[in-house]
Amino acid sequence: RAMSTLSPGADAPVDPEAGKPPSLVAWLASSGLAVGQDLSHISMPVPFFLDKTMLEMLHQNEMRRVDLLLHAGRRDTPVRRFLGVLEYIFSCCLLEEFGRKPLLSRPGETIASVYRSPDGGCAHFFAESLPLTSPTFANTLWTDDLRLYSCGNITIREKFYGTSIHGVPEGRRTVCLGEESYTMTPPSIAVRLLRGFSEYVGESVLECPETGLKACITFEAKPLLRGREHQVRGTVVDTTTDACLFTITGNWMDKVWVEAPGKSRELLHMFQADGCATEPVEESEEWDTRRVWAKVKAAIRRKDWAAAAAEKRAVEQTAPAAAPAHYTFDERRGLYIHNAVPGPRGGG
């Protein structure tokens, strides 16, 4: 069972005056962390935590515009379906408050919900923290008729680089729309300590082997002295002919455009702060991450740091009963797959 290890300064006194938590930069400077150190198992003072868990954040990002994914499956051409999935990927990008991170869900914790669209469609979501050495999360999204389902595994590694912290997600996600499958890899998140902001950086790839379509997207880092934030660029190519079908440009926090050679550009994505309303589903009261961390989150919202720290220790030191097995490892796809998803397991 992966448990947090205490770093120097993790239980340092917190300013009792509400609204004035310690500086993240000052804490890092006094903690004795080495450049390149993995922060995944480092316990930090409670003011640096959000009032949500990693599972809740995963649910928030992937379900906030799940309607886009449902609509993508109804488009009439492979190219339009591909662009629909690409639009959904951009909608999953969301940055939290600078200098704060989600609470680390313990192995066995779960979260489940359902989205009911106005036109009668229904999408189910389930995610679980897996009992592995590094913090790893498996999530599944599916419709009642199973014409759409998505399986993803992600391991979060946080590295300290002196002037920045990089959240490097290792893993991938596969979305299936009928007979087509789309595999995607996520970008990294960089927390710029001295400049006081966070951004997505690095490469993200979406590809569909059945149609030969592939998108390579670069999330560009903001230049040090001048330049714009949250810029993306990329291409959509047909790998069967090596033809470039679209170029991708824009700001994922505003608008992203695609442009075919010789044609005017068209809007692919427009950022929306509000998302789809989902209904919580409690698979198990004992393991539901919203219930497990409820007292901790309530204390964080009150800025009662002493109570939050005590409740957090109580959660981390409690060893509940063995978690139910919701996932099976699929060697062919290299993913932990929810048992509700159809198809063979193992080497099949």
At a glance:
With 348 residues, the protein is of the alpha+beta class.
Describe this protein's structure.
With 348 residues, the chain is an alpha+beta fold. Helix content is 18%, strand content 37%. It contains seven helices and 20 strands. It has helices spanning 24-30, 54-63, 66-72, 78-91, 289-292, 294-302, 305-317, and strands at 5-6, 42-43, 49-53, 101-103, 110-116, 122-130, 136-143, 148-160, 164-177, 180-185, 188-192, 197-208, 213-219, 231-238, 243-251, 255-259, 266-270, 279-280, 327-330, 335-338. The strands form four sheets. Strands 5, 6, 7, 8, 9, 10, 11, 12, 13, 14, 15, 16, 17 and 18 form a 14-stranded antiparallel beta sheet that branches. Strands 1-2 form a two-stranded parallel sheet. Helix 3 runs antiparallel to helix 4 and helix 6 (294-302) runs antiparallel to helix 7 (305-317). The longest helix has 14 residues, at 78-91. The radius of gyration is 21 Å and the shape is globular. The two termini are 30 Å apart. Mean pLDDT is 82; it is low at 1-19 and 344-348.
Notable traits:
348 residues; alpha+beta; 14-stranded antiparallel β-sheet; two-stranded parallel sheet; 7 helices; 20 strands; globular; disordered N terminus; disordered C terminus
Describe the secondary structure blueprint for this structure:
Blueprint: E1 5-6, H1 24-30, E2 42-43, E3 49-53, H2 54-63, H3 66-72, H4 78-91, E4 101-103, E5 110-116, E6 122-130, E7 136-143, E8 148-160, E9 164-177, E10 180-185, E11 188-192, E12 197-208, E13 213-219, E14 231-238, E15 243-251, E16 255-259, E17 266-270, E18 279-280, H5 289-292, H6 294-302, H7 305-317, E19 327-330, E20 335-338
Parallel strand pairs: 1-2, 3-4
Antiparallel strand pairs: 5-6, 5-18, 6-7, 7-8, 8-9, 9-10, 9-11, 10-12, 11-12, 12-13, 13-14, 14-15, 15-16, 16-17, 19-20
